[in-house]
Amino acid sequence: MIKAPYIFLLLLGVFYQINRNFGDSLEDMKRLLPNDLFEISPSIVVVILVRNKAHILPMFLTYFEQLDYPKDRISLWIRSDHNFDNSIEILEAWLQIAQSKYHSVNVEFDNTTQQHQNESSPFDWPQTRFEHVIKLKGEALNYAKKIWADYIFYLDADVLLTSPATLRNLVNLKLPLVAPMLLSESLYSNFWCGMSSTYYYIRTDDYIKIYNVKEEGIFKVMMIHSAVLIDLNYKGAQYLTFDREELRKQQKNDLNWSSTLGPLCRRPYDGPLDDIIVFAMSANCSKIPMFVTNELAFGYILQPLDSTDSLSQDFKQLINIKTNMVHDLDEIKEVNEYLKKYEPTVKKDKMSLDHIYLINLERRPERRRKMLKLFKILGLEVEYFPAIDGKKLDHNKIQEMGIKFMPGYEDPYHHRPMTMGEIGCFLSHFNIWQNIVEKNQGEVLILEDDIRFEPYFKENAKRIIKQARNLKEYDLIYFGRKRLKDESEPPVKGTDNLVHVGYSYWTLGYVLTLKGARKLLDAQPLQNLLPVDEFLPIMFDRHPVKNWSSVYTRRDLIAYSSAPLLLYPSHYTGDVGYISDTEDSVLLNNESSLNNTHFNQAQLKSDRELDFIQMKRENTQSHMKSTAKDEL
Fold first, then answer.
1. How far is CA 196 from CA 175, 193, 387, 473, 575, in A?
2. What is the tens place of the pLDDT at every residue in 406-416?
3. Which of 302, 315, 308, 264 is nearest to 286 (CA)?
């Protein structure tokens, strides 16, 4: 072993060599230091408060453990109490395996009581609960200061940090107060850009820009919560508090100074007993800036529920988040093996339908894998139905199948004939219609493989199916479509979420009855073929091109649409990852068409007038969520 004096002499020799060769360059000095003399990462106390989070804890802990910040520089401060579920059991199982990886672990669990005084539900927040949380957060802050930690990171147990670089990224920003922007099932996140005169949330244009990443960067905001990193070496950190009386005391002592910082700081705090609001005000009134960063896709957050909600509702919210994660990230990290037994699952069913089909090309296994993940999360029992591949079709095969085309048909927007992909798409749906009739299936949901499920899909779909069954009859219900004309779509009498459907494109997902399938087949569409999303509006007599409609004499398909829609495309034209197997393919009369016209991705049918796609989605999501909760 080399003793200390010899190390000192060695370093002196290094510095002498540096001065001799490079002068006083600091970068040169660092470059000649031994590789193992790197800078130690700052120490962090991570504070985790857990209550009734058994349904998310296996995922939360798995993602937390994947953070790439050195674990020997992390001290854990964990508290759990007032649980109805087995949150403590899960935490203990995790700590038994993981705690040795961390610098230190400070844990207190209490199973003696399940409710706070005057608490009506797990999501009710009486004063006693606020007082308890404020006390715990204050104790954690004092603990971090006592052990001379460089940072403290408050992390809620309903946050999923999917980016391993999250903690390292936040520390490297070297900001006094910073949070990673988190996504939810709606527009909820862990920061505020505006605060009312009564200290509550105000949505602003800046908030929307930050949340939707219309602007990317680091932004000064009015509040951050749920995942907050505090630099304890920043001198202003001494003024931070969660305690309302402590804030009032600070304001009284520094009234003249505080009064220069804005209207909310010009009066003693008279707001609610609320840990995150008081904390934000202690920062704002002490001139300590708070920041949120959206430079990375950091992760997701469950939003607070109402006092009338149940734990099952929180689990349904987690299902929404998991579907978003599959859409956004293509996969969900598999939970640690020893936590799998605690992970809740959803029992698969067909939502009271006779069958559910997924149309998917054999050469698109990545889409099929993704959809299978989504079906598992949602609890849907679905049969894979191989699609007809337009790439395998040619003029001879089409003639052999006896297919004839609609006289005079051309794409109404780009004046082109059908593509082989569109022909394959129609035949795929046509084959399923035949299957429905052959197997005498009364009600069937047909799904394509490029869809995005809206929150609470399963609950809302079941409710819409129930509403349709209460009608005298129906043939088809769109779950996802593209509305093309600003025409009247009156609500269906006796229902809450059905409208009479107008001219629409896309066959993302629709429910079809046995009677409806027979009507479609009886029309013999292969004798006057046109794209399937032109054919369906003809059959319910809402197609604007009467020359095409008149070819089909019987146009009595009874069609409705869910309102709001339950499905949207997973990608739009121009998005990263956008692929169209129907439109970006060989044209029918290829030789004659390509001589005069050139088509590119920006001209394809799925880019037509996105006017109606974002039909106040936030408001309609909120309505569907509320209604779904009423059905539980």
1. 26, 10, 54, 50, 37
2. 998 887 777 88
3. 264
Residue 612: the pLDDT is 33
What is the per-residue burial (b if ≥16 Cβ within 10 Å, else e) of 381-395? ebeebebbbbeebee
Q: Which CATH number fits domain 44-313: 3.90.550.10, 3.20.20.10, 1.10.3210.10, 3.30.360.10?
A: 3.90.550.10
Cα–Cα distance for residue pair 409/322, rounded to 1 Å: 43
CATH 1.25.40 fits 346-585, yes or no: no
Q: What is the pTM of this model?
A: 0.85
Report whether 601 contacts 420 (CB < 8 A): no
Ranges under pLDDT 50 in the chain: 1-9, 11-12, 14-16, 18, 22, 578, 590-620, 629-632
**Non-local CB neighbours of 283 within 8 Å, separated by 6+ positions:** 177, 239, 240, 289, 290
CA dihedral 213, 219, 222, 226 (to 10 degrees): 70
Which pLDDT does position 39 carry in this prediction?
80
Picking from 537, 486, 541, 470, the residue whose alpha carbon sits closest to that of residue 507 is 537
The neighbour count for residue 43, using CB atoms within 10 Å, is 20
Give the span between the Cα atoms of 610 and 505, in whole angstroms: 11
Q: How does 455-464 read in b/e, with b if 16+ C-beta sit within 10 Å?
A: bbbbbbbbbb
Q: CA–CA distance from 361 to each of 190, 285, 388, 428, 571 (Å)?
A: 40, 59, 7, 10, 17
Q: According to the model, what pLDDT value does residue 408 have?
A: 87
Residue 221's contacts (CB-CB under 8 Å, 6 or more residues apart) are 191, 192, 193, 210, 290, 291, 292
Parallel/antiparallel/unpaired status of strands 201-202 and 151-155: unpaired
Give start-end residues of each CATH 3.90.550.10 domain in the chain. 44-313
Residue 531: both structure tokens together: 């794209």
Residue 562 sits at φ, ψ, to 5 deg, of -65, 145
Tokens linked to 154: 């408050």
Cβ count within 10 A of residue 53: 23
Q: What is the model's pLDDT at position 374?
A: 97
Tokens 């009886």: give the residue. 522
* Contact status, residue 32 vs residue 65, Cβ threshold 8 Å: no
Nearest-angstrom CA–CA distance, 495 and 465: 11
Q: CA–CA distance from 348 to each of 199, 265, 374, 377, 631 (Å)?
A: 44, 54, 11, 9, 19
Q: How far apart are CA 481 and CA 506, in angstroms?
A: 5
- How far is C-alpha 116 from the chain's CA centre? 32
Strand 223-224 and strand 191-192: pairing?
antiparallel
- Residue owning tokens 């001198």: 235
Nearest to 122 by CA among 94, 75, 174, 87: 87
Phi and psi, residue 179, nearest 5°: -135, 145
Asked if 184 contacts 171 with a C-beta cutoff of 8 angstroms, the reply is no
Give the CA distances from residue 400 to residues 302, 310, 403, in Å, rounded to whole numbers and listed in that order. Answer: 55, 59, 8
Rounded CA gap, 318 and 175, in Å?
31
Residue (of 632, 631, 569, 576) closest to 605 by Cα position: 569
* DSSP conformation class of 405: B
